[in-house]
């Protein structure tokens, strides 16, 4: 009942038929209707033609701009009706309804209070002047996300998380920056307290120190006074010794937490750090072995034509989810074809059981055993080499399998190294900057001169082939001499930087 | 000594009350907060015993036969009318004696005439409803007793009992005149709108509970998406220029935030839609052709804070659920500043909203599970109906008194169905 008047106004404004506008016409002034009506008709026709050409409703746009209303204004319905009806058949009702609606407004002052501020019809699409992200707001949003995630971790994550003690043996070599940065970034994202023990073969060096200083983590940088040998066997043995050295430091400083072995060329997933929080004393996780199998594929083509399955080292459980044994790496297919020295371009094999697949509670290492189990050996009293952490305990079956009994692979093992004699700029900063770029042996540079300058003494292996090239050519010797002078100058510059 | 015993018992009673006020933990799940709307803590009220509903036995052409013609009606967002009928048939509030009934329910499926695409056509619905009312008024005396004031109908279509999908036409038609005095249970709710009657109960649109259950992910998955939305911004088929659809609000969201990395918005429909919602902090629920959408239900189930962009919208069970405290309301004119608005909400407020959303009674109240469970949307509807009791004496007419005009409305509606 109360809305019937409004209904009427809506009907009058929105009707298409001539029938309903009849009574309205009679109420308005008939005198000035004809020329104005003709004008509207012509305008309407013009708008139709333009719309045909342009492909969208031109007339509505014109009226929209002419009247430039905002959609939430209560008093714009009469104008809005002009916009709506511009394209409709009944043009007369535009004229007649506007004065009619104007008259309608005045006697209903209290009705407008109950009027909705929402108007049906075409609205403008509001775009702010600079519709692009604001960096301050992006930062605020990230802070909100961090807070929400922290709350989620508090509620659904591990209750009472313990600190993580990561042990990484490393040494200075070309790929050290690559591997160590990877591990460092993984450790920086770990949401728990972390202590990073970096043991370096060959003593503490600035290279390693500058790398790990960028992490912002609590680090303990230890030096181990032995150079890293060139054969993989020896290297693994030395790494085991370095890890034991780190464990002794854990015992000395009475660090509390979960010790895990983060070898610098391994890849860790974040779920690993969540999973190892469940360890009580000594746990084992499954490690995926990414042994480069470039040579193995040819021989085993007949057997595995689908995707070769990644070998996994880790705990094996029986039907009742109790530890029954170990999955280890099968070295037989690689017999004789595995890398012996670090720069061999053959498959590098892991040990039977890698250190990185084990985690232990640091309290196992402490001297004073409150409720320490008896099956842990005292590391001070260890003699001989410990090849895997199982050598630290007397009862291997007390190890807890983690990651749903070894079914989840939480980290991956890989060993990739450059040649033993490969050089790299210290801290990977080229200082002073290079004046001249020398083409390397392999890249065929399209605009480089075909003859390469000769060398007095071959500095590195790369230069050997240059000597070979120059002995062949004889034609442009003068060019050579001038070039040689130029080159020797830069060579000496080169020598200094390396 | 007697006095001291009573004092002790009194203290125990009081402490019981005090403990209830604090937020309580529910087993292993996160701490949640109690929800109290303007009607009080009524989400967990049990309607059994507070009201009696009589279900009219209509010939099957009004309900079963329509459903048989098209089974898709059971899965679309208007399926609440069918499930409500099924729930009431086997509910303890049902009474077979109409004399003792407080409310009368007419099971007529008006939203089940589907196009090949699956969208319901409302053109025959007014006639269907009219025919049903004619039937009940001639076969039972209860309609004429009050002219429908103690009857309720489910009209879950776009604009409720206005029976049209286009807003202008729906406003033109208005609410079906015969339903003027009845209580309407509908999904459409907008203040000061013709199609929202005083005293209507707003319900959420139907969302399939099983389907949502199967897409749950572990709760510890970190929420890394800031704002999430999947849906149309421009309805190219019906409104290619934009400005009509959603009153230009969805287009404004796209134009302002399409290159903003915090806003994960697009028109693509991924298979991981439900999973992505569980990884988002805010889920946009803008209006479309009608202000309501199943997105609100999905956001509540998946714990994503709903950002409601629809001016003057009335949300489901608004007297029982304090939507202001749970969701974020943004005016359509403020859409260009959406990022500022959302990033300026203090983190404590956000965490509180998430706690409120995690309350299982909140999630239950949005669902229509089969079979019905306590606290679900069926029970909330009954609670709402119970809150309207007892009926005012003035609704009962003396014999001969008439208010409804049976010939009102467009001429097409008067044709028999």
UniProtKB/TrEMBL annotation, chain A:
Bias-annotated ranges (Basic and acidic residues): 488-498
Any one cellular-component term (Gene Ontology): Golgi membrane
One matching Pfam family: Glyco_transf_43
One of the GO biological process terms: plant-type secondary cell wall biogenesis
EC numbers: 2.4.-.-
Entry's localization field: Golgi apparatus membrane
Membrane topology category: Single-pass type II membrane protein
Biased composition (Basic residues): 469-487
Membrane spanning residue stretches: 37-56
Disordered as annotated region, ranges: 439-498
GO molecular function list: galactosylgalactosylxylosylprotein 3-beta-glucuronosyltransferase activity; xylosyltransferase activity
Primary location: Golgi
Function per UniProt: Involved in the synthesis of glucuronoxylan hemicellulose in secondary cell walls.
Name of the molecule in the record: Glycosyltransferases
Organism of this sequence: Hibiscus syriacus
Automatic annotation (TrEMBL), chain B:
Principal location class: Golgi
Signal peptide start-end: 1-23
Domain of life: Eukaryota
Domain Exostosin GT47: 50-345
Localization per record: Golgi apparatus membrane
Bilayer disposition of the protein: Single-pass type II membrane protein
One GO term of the biological process aspect: glucuronoxylan biosynthetic process
Keywords: Glycosyltransferase, Golgi apparatus, Signal, Signal-anchor, Transferase, Transmembrane
InterPro entries named in the record: Exostosin, Exostosin_GT47
Keyword Amino-acid biosynthesis attached: no
GO cellular component: Golgi membrane
GO MF terms held by the record: 1,4-beta-D-xylan synthase activity; glucuronoxylan glucuronosyltransferase activity
PANTHER family per the UniProt record, alphabetical: BETA-1,4-XYLOSYLTRANSFERASE IRX10L-RELATED, EXOSTOSIN HEPARAN SULFATE GLYCOSYLTRANSFERASE -RELATED
Family recorded in the similarity comment: Belongs to the glycosyltransferase 47 family.
Record-given protein name: Putative beta-1,4-xylosyltransferase IRX10L
UniProt organism field: Hibiscus syriacus
């Amino acid at each position: 009942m109360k809305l019937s008047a409004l209904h009427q106004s809506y009907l009058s404004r929105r009707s298409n038929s001539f029938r309903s506008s009849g009574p309205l016409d009679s109420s308005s002034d008939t005198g000035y209707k004809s020329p104005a009506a003709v004008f509207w008709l012509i305008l309407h026709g013009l708008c139709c033609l333009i719309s045909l050409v342009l492909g969208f409703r031109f007339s509505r746009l014109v009226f929209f701009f002419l009247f430039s209303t905002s959609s939430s204004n209560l008093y714009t319905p009469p104008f809005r009706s002009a916009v709506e009806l511009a394209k409709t058949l009944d043009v007369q009702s535009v004229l007649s309804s506007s004065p009619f609606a104007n008259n309608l407004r005045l006697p209903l002052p209290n009705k407008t209070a109950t009027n909705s501020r929402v108007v049906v019809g075409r609205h403008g699409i509001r775009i702010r002047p600079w519709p692009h992200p604001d960096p301050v707001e992006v930062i605020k949003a990230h802070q909100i996300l961090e807070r929400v995630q922290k709350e989620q971790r508090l509620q659904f994550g591990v209750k009472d998380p313990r600190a993580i003690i990561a042990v990484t043996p490393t040494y200075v070599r070309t790929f050290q920056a690559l591997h160590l940065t990877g591990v460092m970034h993984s450790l920086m994202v770990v949401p728990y307290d972390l202590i990073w023990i970096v043991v370096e073969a060959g003593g503490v060096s600035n290279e390693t120190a500058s790398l790990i200083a960028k992490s912002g983590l609590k680090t303990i940088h230890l030096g181990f006074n032995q150079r890293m040998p060139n054969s993989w066997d020896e290297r693994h043995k030395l790494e085991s010794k370095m890890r034991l050295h780190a464990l002794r430091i854990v015992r000395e400083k009475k660090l509390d937490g979960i010790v895990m072995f983060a070898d610098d060329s391994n890849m860790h997933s974040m779920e690993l750090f969540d999973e190892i929080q469940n360890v009580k004393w000594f746990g084992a996780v499954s490690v995926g072995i990414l042994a480069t199998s470039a040579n193995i594929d040819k021989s085993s083509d007949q057997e595995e034509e689908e995707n070769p399955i990644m070998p996994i080292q880790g705990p094996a459980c029986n039907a009742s989810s109790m530890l029954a044994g170990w999955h280890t790496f099968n070295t037989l297919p690689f017999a004789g074809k595995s890398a012996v020295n670090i720069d061999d371009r053959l498959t590098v094999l892991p040990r039977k059981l890698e250190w990185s697949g084990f985690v232990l509670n640091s309290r196992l290492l402490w001297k004073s055993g409150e409720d320490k189990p008896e099956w842990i050996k005292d590391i001070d009293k260890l003699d001989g080499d410990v090849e895997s952490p199982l050598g630290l305990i007397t009862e291997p079956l007390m190890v807890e399998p983690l990651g749903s009994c070894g079914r989840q692979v939480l980290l991956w093992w890989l060993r990739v190294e450059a040649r033993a004699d490969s050089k790299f700029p210290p801290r990977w900063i080229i200082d002073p900057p290079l004046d001249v770029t020398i083409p390397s042996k392999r890249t065929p540079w399209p605009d480089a001169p075909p003859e390469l300058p000769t060398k007095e003494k071959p500095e590195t292996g790369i230069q050997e082939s240059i000597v070979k090239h120059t002995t062949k050519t004889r034609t442009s010797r003068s060019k050579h001499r001038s070039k040689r002078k130029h080159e020797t100058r830069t060579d000496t510059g080169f020598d200094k930087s390396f | 000594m007697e006095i001291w015993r009573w004092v002790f018992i009194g203290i125990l009673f009081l402490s019981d009350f005090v403990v209830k006020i604090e937020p309580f933990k529910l087993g292993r799940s996160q701490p949640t907060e109690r929800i109290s709307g303007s009607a009080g803590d009524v989400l967990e009220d049990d309607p059994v015993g507070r009201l009696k509903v009589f279900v009219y036995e209509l010939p099957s052409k009004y309900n079963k036969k329509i459903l048989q013609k098209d089974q898709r009606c059971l899965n679309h967002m208007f399926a609440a009318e069918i499930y409500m009928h099924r729930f009431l048939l086997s509910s303890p509030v049902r009474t077979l004696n109409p004399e003792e009934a407080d409310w009368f329910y007419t099971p007529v499926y008006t939203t089940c005439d589907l196009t090949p695409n699956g969208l319901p056509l409302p053109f025959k619905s007014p006639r269907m409803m009219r025919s049903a009312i004619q039937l009940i008024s001639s076969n039972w005396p209860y309609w004429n007793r009050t002219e429908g004031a103690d009857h309720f109908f489910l009209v879950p279509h776009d604009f409720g009992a206005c029976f049209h999908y286009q807003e202008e036409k729906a406003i033109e038609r208005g609410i079906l005149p015969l339903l003027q005095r009845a209580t309407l249970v509908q999904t459409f709710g907008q203040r000061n709108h013709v199609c929202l009657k005083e005293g209507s109960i707003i319900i959420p649109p139907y969302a399939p509970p099983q389907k949502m259950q199967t897409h749950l992910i572990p709760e510890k998955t970190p929420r890394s998406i800031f704002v999430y939305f999947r849906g149309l911004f421009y309805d190219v088929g019906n409104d290619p220029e934009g400005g009509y659809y959603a009153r230009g609000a969805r287009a404004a969201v796209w134009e302002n935030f399409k290159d903003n990395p915090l806003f994960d918005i697009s028109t693509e429909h991924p298979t991981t839609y439900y999973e992505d919602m569980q990884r988002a902090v805010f889920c946009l629920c803008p209006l479309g052709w009608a202000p309501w959408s199943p997105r609100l239900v999905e956001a509540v189930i998946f714990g994503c804070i709903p950002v409601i962009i629809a001016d003057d919208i009335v949300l489901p069970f608004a007297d029982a659920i304090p939507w202001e405290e749970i969701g974020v309301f943004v005016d359509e004119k403020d859409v260009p500043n959406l990022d500022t608005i959302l990033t300026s909400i203090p983190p404590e407020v956000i965490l509180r909203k998430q706690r409120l959303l995690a309350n299982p009674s909140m999630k239950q109240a949005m669902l229509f599970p089969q079979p019905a469970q306590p606290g679900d949307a069926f029970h909330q509807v009954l609670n709402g109906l119970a809150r309207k009791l007892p009926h005012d004496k003035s609704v009962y007419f003396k014999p001969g008194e008439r208010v409804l005009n049976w010939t009102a409305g467009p001429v097409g509606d008067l044709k028999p169905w």
